[in-house]
Design brief:
Elements lengths: L1 H18 L2 H10 L4 E4 L9 E3 L4 H9 L5 E3 L14 E4 L9 E5 L2 E4 L6 E4 L4 H10 L5 H17 L1
Antiparallel strand pairs: 1-2, 1-4, 3-7, 4-5, 5-6, 6-7
C-alpha cells in the first residue's frame, strides 16, 4: 500500500511538472501569507481583497505603532461616506499587531466602536498599500478611485 501511494504521488508530481504547473503551485504556496488586505469601497457587494505579499511594511509598523501619536479621538464623519474609504488589514496578529487595522487618510484605526484608537501612520503604511493595490488585478473603477484618492492626498500636502 505504501509503495502504491509513493508511485501515485510520484506520478502526480511528474504530471504537474510536465504540464508546467508544479513551479506555479509551489511559488503560490510560498508567497501566501495569513494577512489580507481589503479595499473599503463597495456597499452591498464584496470588496476586493488579496493576500499581503510584502509584510515588511507591517514589520516597520509593529516597531512604531505603540508610540504613534493620536490623530483624533472619534471617527470623522467622512470615514462613513460612500466610495473609497481606505484599506482594512486582517491577520496582523501573526506579525505581532492587532488582528484588524483600518488605514485611511494617513491614520491607522486600531479596534472598533468606543474602543477604537486613531493613530497617525508612523510607517507610511497607507502609501505602501496604495502601491500594492496598483499591482493587483482589481476592477478598473476601483483602481481609478484609489488613484484619485492618492492624487488628492498628494495635492493636500
Amino acid at each position: 500500500m505504501k509503495t502504491m501511494k509513493s508511485v501515485l504521488g510520484a506520478a502526480a508530481g511528474i504530471s504537474l511538472t510536465c504540464l508546467g504547473l508544479a513551479p506555479d503551485l509551489l511559488a503560490g504556496a510560498e508567497d501566501q501569507t495569513n494577512v489580507t488586505v481589503e479595499v473599503l469601497i463597495f456597499s452591498g457587494r464584496p470588496n476586493p481583497t488579496w493576500p499581503l505579499q510584502d509584510t515588511k511594511c507591517l514589520a516597520a509598523l509593529r516597531a512604531k505603532w505603540k508610540d504613534a501619536p493620536e490623530a483624533f479621538q472619534n471617527e470623522p464623519a467622512g470615514w462613513r461616506r460612500l466610495g473609497f474609504t481606505g484599506f482594512r488589514i486582517r491577520g496582523g496578529e501573526t506579525l505581532g499587531l492587532p488582528g484588524e487595522l483600518r488605514v485611511y487618510q494617513g491614520v491607522i484605526q486600531v479596534g472598533r466602536g468606543k474602543d477604537a484608537k486613531y493613530l497617525k501612520d508612523p510607517a507610511g503604511l497607507e502609501q505602501r498599500l496604495i502601491a500594492e493595490a496598483k499591482k493587483q488585478a482589481i476592477e478598473q473603477p476601483v483602481q481609478d478611485a484609489i488613484a484619485g484618492y492618492e492624487r488628492g492626498r498628494k495635492g493636500a500636502r
